[in-house]
Amino acid sequence: MPKILIVEDEAAIADTLVYALQAEGFATRWVAVAGEALALLEDEPFDLVILDVGLPDISGFEACKRLRRFSEVPVIFLTARNEEIDRVVGLEIGADDYVTKPFSPREVAARVKVILKRVVPRHAAAPTAADPVGAFQIDLLRYQIHFHGQLLPLTRHEFRLLETLLGQPGRVFSREQLLDALGVAREAGYERNIDSHIKGLRAKLRAVAPATKPIQTHRGLGYSCLLEH
Question: Which CATH class is domain 3-123?
Fold first, then answer.
């Protein structure tokens, strides 16, 4: 039974989420502040976190940044704000989805199901820990990738993008397919940010091996990765 941690300071909202998620077969835990949630996440395994942005101790954005220092658990943000910049910022700091209040608890439960389905298959067919892929070394247990023996300082999304490209060298992935690999909903308005993530990845690869160009652009199609030894 998947365990969902709800971090929400409004009891009425938390109650509706608990009811909807339990009706779908999920186990739930509710806390009202980010500090308690982070302590719990360090001590207990959870399958997904539903995180309110407007918490009384620290913001959900800051809580997510701290969470990403030690955990890759999927995160859905809840917020009363609907500005596009907030959605983009939330996704860039490591969230998997973004739901604006007021929302349907059943829709949130459906989004939880979609994310959990994406998370498991994404790694099921991937290389095992520390498998060599050309000049790359992928360590899925530590969420690390080495390039020519050097550890790449990757963000969460950069890791997932590079892992996806390396999983099928030479295959051209569209931006929509790469969004799926990130576990980000396509309607989140995040497609254009794939290009900025790729740009960041290329800069980090060049810092290790300036003459190499493993990530290829296919205009109008997407991106692929060529293996170099």
Answer: alpha beta
Q: Which two tokens stand for residue 129?
A: 């820990």
pTM of the model: 0.60
3-state secondary structure at position 112: helix
Q: What is the DSSP letter of 44?
A: S
Of the pLDDT bands very low, low, confident and very high (cuts 50, 70, 90), residue 184 is low
Q: Quick one: how far is CA 210 from the chain centroid?
A: 28
Residue 201 CB burial class (10 angstroms; 0-12, 13-18, ≥19) = buried
pLDDT per position as a tens digit, 28-41: 999 999 999 999 99
Q: What would the pLDDT profile of 103-138 be if each residue is shown by its tens digit?
A: 899 989 998 998 888 765 444 444 444 567 888 998
What are the boundaries of each domain within the chain? 3-123, 125-225
Architecture in CATH for domain 125-225: Orthogonal Bundle (1.10)
- Give 35's Cβ-side CA count (13 Å radius): 3
List, in sequence order, the alpha helices (H) in the chain.
Answer: 11-23, 34-43, 60-67, 84-92, 105-124, 156-167, 175-182, 193-208
The answer to whether 60 and 54 have CB atoms below 8 angstroms apart is: yes
When computed from its CA atoms, the radius of gyration of the chain, rounded to whole angstroms, is 18
146-160 per-position pLDDT tens digit = 999 999 988 878 888
**Residue (of 76, 142, 163, 79) closest to 115 by Cα position:** 76
What the block records as the tokens of 13 is 């909202």
